[in-house]
Amino acid sequence: MTKAHFFFDRALLPTGWARDVRMRVDDGIVATVEAGVAVRSGDLRHGVALPGLCNLHSHAFQRGMAGLAEVRGPAGDTFWTWREVMYRFLDRLDPDMVEAIADLAFAEMLEAGFTRVGEFHYLHQAPDGAPYDNPAELTDRIVAAASDTGIGLTLLPVFYAHSDFAGAPPKPGQRRFIHTLDSFSRLLDAGRDAARRLPDARVGIAPHSLRAVTPEELAVLLDAAGDAPVHIHAAEQDKEVSDCVAALGARPVEWLIANAPVDARWCLVHATQMTAAETNALAGSGAVAGLCPVTEANLGDGVFPSEAYLNAGGRFGLGTDSNIHIDAAMELRSLEYAQRLSIKGRNVLADAPGASTGVSLFQKALAGGAQALAADSGLVPGAPADFLTLDENHPSLFNRHDDALLDSWVFAAGREAVDGVWRRGRQVVREGRHVRRAEFVERYRLALRRLLD
Ligand code: NGQ
Ligand code: ZN
Fold this sequence. Notes:
alpha/beta; 8-stranded mixed sheet; globular; binds N-carbamimidoyl-L-glutamic acid
């Protein structure tokens, strides 16, 4: 058994900030955490430690198109016109490119303080829509990228069969996503096998959306899921809501709550467009809202009703979704800023008078993200030793401690103030850089050259 002792001057524990924290790690798992103790010789000593966050929603390949959909089209750019650009981008991706882009994206997630990713993986087929010789080729590439970078993986194989409600046939741009229920069940088995190559991977199931999956297909998928996490895109766009009402007689979140066993296993990604009744119902279900504030801003989705949802006891976690910019602190900040802009107030999402907005949001995102990815989190015995340290030499963090330090990280410094990151007790980021960053960047450069030249 490999054993290590870490010592932190300060650390954020489930109960709040603690000083002089000594943590024993056995084989990658936290064994003991003691606060208010003395450092001992041989301890690996660091300043300020935070538990690693879960990134509950990513489409890794979209990292490769960051910044390539920011030119105005002929008329009225929206989420739907962005989606056309995205479909054209993925048209030419080959397996090596998928792996190179995922390597970079996952390395950047670690550098930003995310120690586990929920990869909502729907790119399955070859460019002509036929299966690869190995039907799980691209799933294997995602698993390889998790292995290369060391990030924790919750693989979410996506079932996608239709272009819209009422079982509409898929469009040509969607041909690489498509499965039958039979071929998907084989993909799921292959994904479960591949995940065993990683130390603590989980495999959930992801019906893409109520647009891409019929109610009958959803029922079959839920049987196959067992106790595993269930992730679905829901109610991101107004048009999706009106089409859902026309086809199914209810709004997406309303329909799911009434017709599917939505509970703590579920993650409803986005859930942007909700009535007050839906907001309360989702909050009461125990499910996690998968919020992706940076992507939702980029795509013009609208604003999730965070204040009402949190007041109703709702759970949430954070996702980087399109990976337009990968930064855990910025996701937390953007969540609060969307509320400030729409409510015209400040510190809207802090727990109570006197509470720090940064800490309130961090602790909730930590718990909700881990729930959605079926992972353990926090610096507690039994959890993987997944944590980060902050760079106290960053000017934005000078003379800050505890709550003020975390608020300064979330609102001022962001990802450039992440110093070290450890996964299962092994250091994967040093001085803000993934230990294999240079190699990943070079591979990514070659992939992008082939893709975009
Ligand atoms: C996706 N992304 O699957 O990548 C989607 C776009 C869709 C977001 N919803 C495609 N943000 O929803 O049809
Ligand atoms: Zn998504």
